[in-house]
Amino acid sequence: MILQRIGNKGIRLGTLFERAARKHPTNVVILDHDLDIAPQLGRRATVAEVADLIDDMASRLWAANVRPSRRVVIYKSDGFDITLLACAAVRIGAVPVLLSPKLDGETVAELVRRTEQPYLLTDQNKLETELPASVFEEAEQVLLTSGSYKEAVELASLAGSPRVPAVTMPPEHPTLITHTSGTTGTPKLAVHTGATLQARYRPQAAITKPLLPGRETIAMHVSFVHSRLITALAISLFRGYPIVVLADSDPRKAADLFAQLRPGILEAHPNSFMEWEELADDPRKPLANVKLFSSTFDAIHPRTVQRLLAATERTAPVFGQLYGQSEIGPAVARSFSRRRGLDADGRCVGMPFPGMTDVRVVSRNGLPVSETNPGFIEVKSDGRIVTYLGEQERYDKQVNDGWWRMGDVGYRTKWGCVHLLDREVDMIEGFGSTLAAEDTLFTRLEELSEVIIIPDESGRAVPIVCTRDDKPIDPAAWKAATAGLPPMAEPVQWRQSDLPQTATTKIKRLELARLIAAGTASQLIEEKI
């Protein structure tokens, strides 16, 4: 799209912190955890110190013979150093491949194989507990971020390597590879260029500027292997916002940190915001200074929006929602205010960015698209990835004359607002929108911490529910809450921590459905509750 293309020189990930340090050298990055690659740095550092760490790590990778255009798979224990190592790899022209610490070892081994003899950055714990021995054959070399392991090279042993100049690759050159959520099977490897990431940065930067005219502290809890973190960091670094990076979403720990640092912006996954609803009742008022709550990855429940907005004492706070996908970036946006009631339509995910993104909804059956006959949502944006690594044919199937099939169904109102009703693979014929039903249940039942409606082997809708502190759901309250909703089976209760999740905390609905279809779900639940 035209406004994404003008003067697009690429996001230049390798020098992101260095350029920000020249503009705001004393700005700080605060962590809730220690970095495996630099525990001596502590949990508070200036942007200039972080930039120097990236330069140091880049020199160590160079000393390990990593060169421009070579791929570097990063699969290590969770932490912000995943992102910093990606910056270090790009700084010398290499292409980082970010794999979630939540992925199992066999899946990682397959993705390493697909990456074709990459360098593998991992740690002793992953090698001992997750990764199969075959990764040593599939990788050019195995490098360790912490610990020691036979046949692997420790980054610590390369300390003091001569610094090397930054390598700037063309904007159209691959600069980052991330993986898709894996909600529908083995993750795909999404290839981003400097230009596509910059195209994603622009609409997000454009909409936040008028909302945040002053300097604010931003707290982020975003997957370290997701492209969203890159654009969020770029916006914050260049505006001089102090940055708080969380690896742990535990509400008690988050409350302690927010009560102390008083962030003005919160960026997190929808499920993290659901966890943080309880912070609204904390007497220390940890959310009192928040001006902007920012969420992407998925639509969010109206109850969560209202509880968080009610907890801040800022004038006219905003909850900003971006709807998009790993492959395309943000496509549409919508803001919420305190004026929106709990009966507001949470399925409305917003409007496209003028001059930057566009959306259309294509009929599934030749009949006009409507709320009762939703169609396929398709998006056009220069932020779209350029391929799936090793799966070009699979990529091509999702592109039609520049339009990208999102895998969701919905419709647009006469005003152009996009309404998201379901994932294509999650539709239950004759039920209507499962996501809308879940919104309703959240609004009517305060004790719910999660609810997922999935089909059983006969196609009947089965609600999987989680409650705060795992308290049994009250049958009478459930009956009242489901009044007026399409027919469903009796609720099945799980612990939320046991639900299968992706790197961005989305629930793997197909995996849950397979458990039910296999007849093993009830047995598992009896053990858990």
Automatic annotation (TrEMBL):
Limits of the AMP-dependent synthetase/ligase domain: 17-384
PROSITE patterns linked to this entry: AMP_BINDING
Source organism superkingdom: Bacteria
InterPro entries in UniProt: AMP-binding_CS, AMP-dep_synth/lig_dom, ANL_N_sf, ATP-dep_AMP-bd_enzyme
Signal peptide as annotated in the record: none
Protein's recorded name: Class I adenylate-forming enzyme family protein
